[in-house]
Amino acid sequence: SYELTQPPSVSVSPGQTARITCSGDALPKQYAYWYQQKPGQAPVLVIYKDSERPSGIPERFSGSSSGTTVTLTISGVQAEDEADYYCQSADSSGTGVFGGGTKLTVL
Amino acid sequence: QVQLVQSGAEVKKPGASVKVSCKASGYTFTSYAMHWVRQAPGQRLEWMGWINAGNGNTKYSQKFQGRVTITRDTSASTAYMELSSLRSEDTAVYYCARGRWVVRGVTTYYFDYWGQGTLVTVSS
């Protein structure tokens, strides 16, 4: 079955830039989406269609795509950005697939 | 504002069934699909299936085919997910999520609003 691969953890200091990657063979053909999940809370969509930002999401969140890897970039990380981040895309049949999640730690 | 409010936590014995509800407000219920996604402890999010709230059509993940049933009550703007033949591995938080369709070669989806989650514990 199709899988998306994320690093288990990323750590940055406040004010620095965090980059979280997601790799998958079908990513050149399918959009990627990113969700933020804080402990005990539901996921929140932060990026859709690779690089679009929903209303209400801070401008410091951005997304990009290059070949089989998509990247979520958080510029000027704040303490409140500490969370798990999941990428999501689709397999060849259109079925939604999630990455394993990346825990962002703000040092 | 869009809100999805789910029913409360459940404790079930192995072999039983559970039915979780998801009440929608703040948008036209029948204009969107409702999906169900689960998250077992320490595991990734896992898509289970969707229902077209307008016409009632459904599609389920092969993993859950035969055990999951998603229904809706348009008069109550509520979607339901029933999972049968429960086993300990089904212990998880179950989320409803409003789906947005995207066509890029194939038709796929993403989730723009999520319910607060319902913990289902399966234990003897």
Q: What would you say this structure looks like, in words?
A:
The complex is a heterodimer of chains A (107) and B (124). Chain A contains no helices and nine strands. In chain A, the strands form two sheets. In chain A, strands 1, 3, 4, 7, 8 and 9 form a six-stranded mixed β-sheet that branches. Chain A has strands at 9-12, 18-23, 33-37, 44-47, 61-66, 69-74, 83-90, 96-98, 102-106. By secondary structure, chain B is mostly beta strands. In chain B, 0% of the residues lie in helices and 58% in strands. Chain B is built from no helices and eleven strands. In chain B, the strands form two sheets. In chain B, strands 2, 4, 5, 6, 9, 10 and 11 form a seven-stranded mixed β-sheet that branches. Chain B has a four-stranded antiparallel β-sheet with strand order 1-3-8-7, with no helix packed on it. Classes of the chains: A mainly beta (107), B mainly beta (124). At the A-B interface, strand 7 and strand 8 of A face strand 5, strand 9 and strand 10 of B.
Tell me the layout of helices and strands.
The complex is a heterodimer of chains A (107) and B (124).
Chain A: E1 9-12, E2 18-23, E3 33-37, E4 44-47, E5 61-66, E6 69-74, E7 83-90, E8 96-98, E9 102-106
Parallel strand pairs in A: 1-9
Antiparallel strand pairs in A: 2-6, 3-4, 3-7, 5-6, 7-8, 7-9
Chain B: E1 3-6, E2 10-12, E3 18-25, E4 33-39, E5 45-52, E6 58-60, E7 68-73, E8 78-83, E9 92-104, E10 106-114, E11 118-122
Parallel strand pairs in B: 2-11
Antiparallel strand pairs in B: 1-3, 3-8, 4-5, 4-9, 5-6, 7-8, 9-10, 9-11
Keywords:
heterodimer, A: 107 residues, mainly beta, 6-stranded mixed sheet, B: 124 residues, 4-stranded antiparallel sheet, 0% helix, 58% strand
